[in-house]
Task: inverse folding
């Protein structure tokens, strides 16, 4: 039967490769398909692999903690991690969540008006996408509060 030692490094390397490639693709906005989902969910494999790797190599890891350079590098990353939770001064963040929230609260007919398209055409596109919309209904109520469904509704409305 395989031991933890036999799995630790291959899982760490494989999960790192997946996480690194999908992360770089996301950074450059080149991700497609399931890249984002794979990056978010399969990064747990990286966590598991690293924990397994630390478990089987604990004595060597303790040795690194005695080296000033290694401690300095790890402390530097710890400081960057803590700093990543601090809000940016003077930054109000992305306007996208505010816009999306406003669109979700708006009646379908008003969002259709933003497109400059004919209401019956857009309503038929919504119906074809599986959303039987009352023009006065809000996008949030049409989607049942599901953000994924809201995105599909907006995609159907703004499609040309």
Result:
């Amino acid at each position: 039967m395989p031991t933890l030692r036999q799995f630790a490094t291959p899982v760490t390397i494989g999960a790192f490769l997946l996480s690194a490639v999908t992360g770089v693709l996301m950074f450059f906005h080149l991700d497609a398909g399931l890249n984002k989902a794979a990056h978010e969910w399969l990064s747990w494999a990286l966590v598991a692999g690293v924990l397994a790797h630390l478990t089987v190599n604990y004595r060597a890891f303790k040795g690194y903690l005695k080296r000033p350079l290694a401690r300095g590098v790890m402390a530097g990353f710890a400081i960057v991690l803590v700093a990543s939770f601090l809000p940016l001064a003077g930054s109000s963040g992305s306007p996208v969540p505010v816009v999306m929230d406003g669109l979700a609260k708006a009646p379908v007919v008003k969002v259709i008006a933003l497109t400059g398209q004919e209401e019956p055409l857009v309503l038929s596109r919504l119906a074809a996408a599986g959303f039987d919309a009352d023009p006065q209904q809000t996008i949030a109520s049409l989607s049942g509060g599901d953000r994924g469904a809201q995105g599909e509704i907006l995609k159907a409305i703004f499609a040309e």
In short: The chain has two domains: 4-83, 96-158. The chain has nine helices and no strands.
